[in-house]
Write a structure and sequence with these properties.
This protein is α/β, with parallel strands linked by helices. The protein has nine helices and 17 strands. It has two domains: 242 residues, QueA-like; 100 residues, Thrombin, subunit H. The longest helix has 13 residues. The two termini are 25 Å apart. About 2% of the residues have low confidence.
Length: 364
Amino acid sequence: MNLSDFDYHLPPELIAQYPARRREDARMLVVDRSEGRFFDSQFRWFPQALSQDDVLVVNNSRVLAARLLGRRMGVHALTPGKRSPTRREHLTSEIEALLIRPLGDGDWEALVRPGQKVPLGERLFFETTEGRPERLEAEVVGRGEYGLRTLRFSNATSLERKLRRIGHVPLPPYIRRPDETLDRRRYQTVYARHAGSVAAPTAGLHLTRRIMGELGRHGVEIVEITLHVGLGTFQPIHESEIEAHQLHPEQFEIQPTDAARINRALAKGRRIVAVGTTTVRTLEHAAVRNLRIRPGTGDTQLFIMPGFEFRVVGGLLTNFHLPRTTLLMLVSAFAGRDLILAAYEHAVRERYRFYSYGDCVLIL
């Protein structure tokens, strides 16, 4: 397969820069796999689109304020043994760090820009002067490809608290504006529980407590799992052959009680509807060698492309995805490339809003 097989034209003005006024105001394009057709709808009708015996599985990961803006200090400018710069020490150019995942003992894998200017041993400083001053300090202790660095934070036990004050919401680059106060609430699902993601599982951004209550009254069972969205979700494909691409590992957790609920549903032949591609990858990874879902924690690098045999997921609520990405390949594997690209062309003609803050697609 070639990357060009997963391309489409999107006018830039269709990329949503802000969320809809209300979460459930999104439009919803419904794709019927069995009949090979699609039709326009509204997300408020989502509960009626599902069957009474369906099981809806959501990803309850919470987005960290993981984008840090600060300054770097050249390793040769530091006084040996000091933990903070003095007034005479010189902070050099601006730096940006996106925390990807914790590695333990205060170490974090991070995407640093501009990465080529950040050698081992350099110290980075992030701070806020709004309200009560707060500072984060990190040392670069490891290097990887494409700007990846290992950062070692001092006072790691208070890192999450400091991130809430210093960190920025990690909006994707196609949202061409700085993060705002509203993003702290709207770039987060209403059921987010466990902090750890650097990007929102955006299909769930449309769900509200009212919609979830209506789903329950309709007979749909809702189950939560966790996958902390990391670099793997938006990592570009660099290889000329798609099959050679490897995803960055992302951490997941499935509780035994939730695995048991999904397994009982599978045993009864009930349909599993996943909210988001992260949920799909977690479920299919957990059942890749067994039709039953295995509970537990771990990392997944499952790359789903056309030809993949889905063992668990029978329906998918998702957003529109960027061209030439692993996410577009996943939905193409689920519904067929030709049907998905035709649906996307229709969405462009009908002026749907695309990507994280945009409208959604329900594939059944």
